[in-house]
Amino acid sequence: MLLVFFALAMQTSTPKAGIANFDEYWKKRAEEAKEASREAYEPNPEKVAEHFNYEVHKSLEGGNSTRRNLGKYKGPCLATNPIDQCWRCDKNWAKNRKKLGGCALGFGRKTIGGMHGKYYRVTDPSDNDMVNPKPGTLRYGVIQDEPLWIIFAHDMAISLSEELMVASNKTIDGRGANVHIYNGAQITLQFVRNVIIHGIHIHGAKAGNGGMIRDSVDHYGFRSRSDGDGISIFGSTDIWIDHISMSNCEDGLIDAVMGSNAITISNCHFTKHNDVMLLGASDSYSGDSVMQITVAFNHFGRGLVQRMPRVRWGFVHVVNNDYTHWEMYAIGGSQHPTIISQGNRFIAPSDPACKETFM
Length: 359
Ligand SMILES: *[C@@H]1O[C@H](CO)[C@@H](O)[C@H](O)[C@H]1NC(C)=O
Ligand SMILES: *[C@@H]1O[C@H](CO)[C@@H](O)[C@H](O)[C@H]1NC(C)=O
Fold this sequence. Notes:
15% of the residues lie in helices and 30% in strands. By secondary structure, the chain is an alpha/beta fold. The termini are far apart. One 2-acetamido-2-deoxy-beta-D-glucopyranose (NAG) is lined by residues 145, 147, 168-169, 194. Keywords: Calcium, Cell wall, Glycoprotein, Lyase, Metal-binding, Secreted, Signal. Belongs to the polysaccharide lyase 1 family.
């Protein structure tokens, strides 16, 4: 009896957020994900941060100043940082979409998404069948096994009925269309590797009720309620989130937890939200000490309260972000994380209690 109890206790301490039945399939994926995270771990993370800074300096060469112009700009296309300079302002970008796959810098720099795969066009904004999604929907594309570069046929607003379970080796590329993922469930990257999410709007994410949800061509299972994050990165490696506008989700805008690693979050615009970015959710989960994450060139804007980011355990390079609003604090950490904050601009609110960056 005691033994049975012990076994159950062990099981509840295994990470299984959302997975109601931690079956053989999920056990295997969790194992593979752990291995991927270990493999991506940089024993000298300072080198990666230095290389990032070197790329920034290089991109400023030829200018007269190392200061960035952070004012409002309405002129022709400008690419002001080395990530954007890699792809942006190319008149033929639509013919060279996959070039983006080589543009990530920082800890997520090896993320190529679906660069070596086919294109998949989302033509249908509906999201009605969680187990057998309709071809043409976003959900049908993201669960495929093969690498895919997912694009959108036209402007669309997609309200996810339940968590969108994105599989490995995918790019979601919203360029050329105005794509909103809104007022529905979250995007979940769970035990996956190599995903780019680029150029979409995510707002109003809510907790999903859970239920039977397909996560790959060969598997679906029962999932419990989802948190209502914008993007949940759970035990996943090589993830690049770039040019995403996010606001007003029920839980975090972006959470990276359970040993997720090799992540870059860049060029995003965050507004109207309380818990913005949580990197490591648990004081007791030391497995998060592998986490190595770059947060760069983002605008933390109007109506934000805290966690930009809030870090536990890991190593986070917070560089060249623009903080124009916060109501509690900007950057925070606990459980001896390493946070390197460089080249950020902080405009503190007038409230005297919000003047400092807490560490
Ligand atoms: C640098 O400054 C010089 C003198 O003010 C100016 O003529 C030149 O155009 C500037 N170069 C750039 C790239 O801004
Ligand atoms: C993703 O792509 C890589 C490289 O092609 C491949 O080795 C790996 O098995 C793929 N991952 C999945 C889960 O399909």
